[in-house]
Amino acid sequence: MLDNDFILNGKTAQSLYHSVAKNAPIYDYHCHLSAKEIYEDNTFDNISKIFLGFDHYKWRAMRYAGVPEKYVTGDSDDLSKFKMWAKTCERLIGSPLYHWTNLELKNFFGVTELLKESNSEEIYNYCNTKIKDENLSPVKFIENSNVKLICTTDDPIDDLEYHKLLAEKSDLTFKVLPTFRPDKSLNLLNTDFEDYIEKLSNVASIAIETYSDFLKAIKSRVTYFHEAGCKLSDHSLESLEYFSTDEGEVSLIFSKRLKGDSISKSEAEKYKFFTLKQLAKEYNDRNWVMQLHIGALRNNNEVMQGKTGPDSGFDITNDFEISSHLSRLLNDINNEASLPKTILYTLNPKDNIVLSTLPQCFSEDGVQGKVQFGTAWWLNDHKRGITDHLTSLGEQGMLAYSLGMLTDSRSFLSYARHEYFRRILCSFIGNLVDSGEFENDDELLKEIVEAICFKNIKKYLEM
């Protein structure tokens, strides 16, 4: 279990992984790490702080296993929390969490035993000794994982102080760049929308009284992010219902909301997508990549959200029709010659075919894979989900030009997920070769695997 050939089915898969994929650099172009934590680079207190401090994947599993909340996000001691995770983990048959946890322990701490309740205290103490003796910190975990790029997720009102400080450090072997995530400014139905607009107004030093004022303010923040090295934007589309509209109607809708009047769902959608089209022009002008994350249904347990806050393990896959609405959105932007490079992600695997075929409708002369179907995202980030994604890309798109893996994580140990993906990728390609469905050409296979692991995203972002 978890030996050198874990998940690698066949000689071709083993050769591709060990000779090509294993030591390839990591370009983690979408994550939720903290630039402040990276800059301060403090040695971690203990393994629980790293394992369980921000990992809502693990929190969900522990709660479902009946673990009391005090051992999940509560005030229990860290050893007890680790033991509770170990007890949960050893029963996670079929779960990527079982694989990720044990890969993390093996890769970062040299633990070769599988984590169980019976050995949890021993492993806890061993890891903590290693953390102390080797001063294990965010930068050490990043550099030991051969990471070359980290793109964090940042609100337009952020001052990016720590990104700027990190850019001044000449001793780092990796870059940390911000990503522009303006969701709070695009969702009129948020109860705190007016408060957010006031904060945006203050940061941009622009009085926001009209929609035109708002556009000036949000675009000024695009410029601010660009000057700090930003190369990507990101948008969470938790609904997708396209309506035709114009700036006059959207301006009236915006004014209604600022006055505190009620807004209908259709009005909110009109505002969101018209504004997204205006932002897409800014992204395109700066050669940014626009990311659209589609299909999360967030905060399903209001009681627990009140106790633990958002993004704490109560989100699920949404289920709505996306093809015509997404197509119209991209087409409108493209009609104005302002479609930036775009990555589409879905949380619902029913949409794999849509997102593996739609990008080819927006090819650009001489450009390799301008619109991309992004990696298996979040709740699809497991062996079957990744394999289904690779299959869809291979059958309907062009797998060789795909952008590979990202962590989408708040954990500094999550680079083990790149290993997990690369093993599955090499096994997938190896199976096609061994079954005679693709040519056994060593140089070509090496080129394809390297491209998916890091070269495609490096070229796409023009690093």
Automatic annotation (TrEMBL):
Pfam families: UxaC. Keywords: Isomerase. InterPro entries: Metal_Hydrolase (IPR032466), Uronate_isomerase (IPR003766). Its EC number is 5.3.1.12. It comes from the Bacteria. It catalyses: aldehydo-D-galacturonate = keto-D-tagaturonate; D-glucuronate = D-fructuronate. GO terms for molecular function: glucuronate isomerase activity. Pathway: Carbohydrate metabolism; pentose and glucuronate interconversion. The keyword Protease does not apply. It is an enzyme of class 5 (isomerase). One of its GO terms (biological process) is D-glucuronate catabolic process. Belongs to the metallo-dependent hydrolases superfamily. Uronate isomerase family. PANTHER family: URONATE ISOMERASE (PTHR30068). This is Uronate isomerase. The gene is uxaC.
